[in-house]
Amino acid sequence: MRQLALDVAVTRGDTVESRHRVHAAVVEGEDLVASSRDPHLVTMWRSCAKPFQVMPLLVSGGFDQLGWGDEELALACASHGGEPEHLAIAGRMLSSIGLEEGDLACGPHEPLSSRGARLWRESGESLSRLHNNCSGKHSAMLARAHTMSWPTRDYQRAEHQVQRSCLGEVSCWSGVPLDDMAVAVDGCSAAVMALPLDRMALAYARLGAAMAAGDEVPGRIAAAVRAHPTLMGGTDRFDTVIIQESRGRVIPKVGAEGVHTVMIPDRRIGFAIKVEDGALRAQHAAVVEMLRLLEVFDQLPSRLADYVHKPVKNTRGEQVGELRIG
Predict the structure, then answer these.
(1) Best label site of 3, 29, 52, 129, fewest CB within 10 Å?
(2) Which value, in Å, is the radius of gyration of the alpha carbons in the chain?
(3) pLDDT number for residue 28
C-alpha cells in the first residue's frame, strides 16, 4: 500500500511554528490503495454525509413528487455560503411543503462565504436559520418527513424515521453496520455518525463508481452538483473551486473539524482525510496535495496551488513565513 505524506507545516522565518498531523485513506474500487498515518481512524463524518442523507428522499419518489430539480438537490448536498441565492432556494424548498424558516432545527450563523457575509452585513437584516450552511439539508429532511406523512417535529433526532433512513443509507454505502456506528449530534442539530476513514473513502469510491456507471440516483446527484457548483459551496468556497477547476471530474464534500471526503468518479476513487487538530487551513492544503499525488491535473491550477503554498503575513502585509506540506 502506498504511503503518503500529508502533514502540514506553518513556518515563521526558518522555524516551523505549527504542524498539523493529517490522516487519510484512498480507496480505488473496493481496495484501500494508499494512506497517510492511520487510515482506520474513527471520526465524525459531519457534512461529508450529505449526499447520502438526501438519497432516501430521492429513492422514495418524494423529491420528484414535490417538483424539485437540480438546484434543490445541489443545495441539499451543500455546505453553502449563506449567499442570497442559497437562502432563496432553501426558502423555496420550505414553502413548497408548507413550512417556514422557524421549522428548521438548525440555528443561525454568519455566512461562510465572504460574499455572503458582506451582503448580509450590508443588508442590515438579522441572521436567520436559512443562513446556516446546512439549511438545504434540513429542508430536504423536512421534505422527507412531509412526503412520508411522518411528524416534522424532532425530525433531527437520531430516533426519528428521517434520521434512521439517513443512517441506514450511510450504513449501506460504507458497509458499517448500524449497531457499530456511533451517533451524536452535529453542529446543525441533526444526527451525525462516526466512521473509520477507510469506510468513508469506500462509500465515496462506490458512489463515484455508481455515478460513472449512470445509476439513476447517484447520477442525478452528480448532475446537480456539476451544474451548480456555487450552490454546493459559494462564490469563493473551496469545494466550488475544485468542482470548477476540475470541470466536474472531482466532487468533494467538506466537513467540519478537519474532515473532507472526495470522489473521482471516472477512476472509481474515493478518499477521506482528517486533520487531527481540525484546522481548516491544513484541511484545504491536504486535499489539494492529495489531488496532486493522484495526478488529477496535468498541472495544478493556480487557484488550488495557492492553498498548498500559502504565505503567512504580518499586520503590515509582509510575508514572514509560509504554510506548506511537510
Answers:
(1) 3
(2) 19
(3) 98
